[in-house]
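Batch job 17 of 40 flagged for manual review because the log was empty.
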Amino acid sequence: MKTHILAGIAALTAALAGPAASAGAGPAGHHHATDAFGHPGDPRKPARVVTVVMKDDGGAMAFVPNRIEVRKGEQVRFKLRNDGALDHEMVLATLEMNLRHAEEMKKNPDMEHDDPHAKRIGPMRASEILWRFDKAGTFDFSCLIPGHREAGMTGTIIVK
């Protein structure tokens, strides 16, 4: 099953990279979809800690906080805590990328994320994402488990 999930993630990453990947974008022809919103952090460098709690009280789902401001070039260690009764995930991306990925998740609802920019967390569990935001702009974080984003599990990261 893990092989199926990894293959699905690889196919989705290639799809998100789009035509630029075949055009030889990036060093040695590599293009990473995550370049649009930053890069995995360096654990040897300092990072600002931001705690994000996942909740699912009474059908309403939310990230607390759901709006985070960071400075361009800043490295952030997101301490993720799922206080809910259901699995949740946090996927950092552009809004467009997350909306497309949400459609893929509807077709493959068992896809689990454990990538530098995405973590799936069971109830009453914790994890973290270490990320460096090197581009200014407005970015998205969402739980892409089908129905969760629609129930309110989405947030905004503003990089100034």
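Reviewer: the log was empty due to a logging misconfiguration, but the result itself is present. The chain has one domain: 36-159. Unflagging and moving on to job 18.
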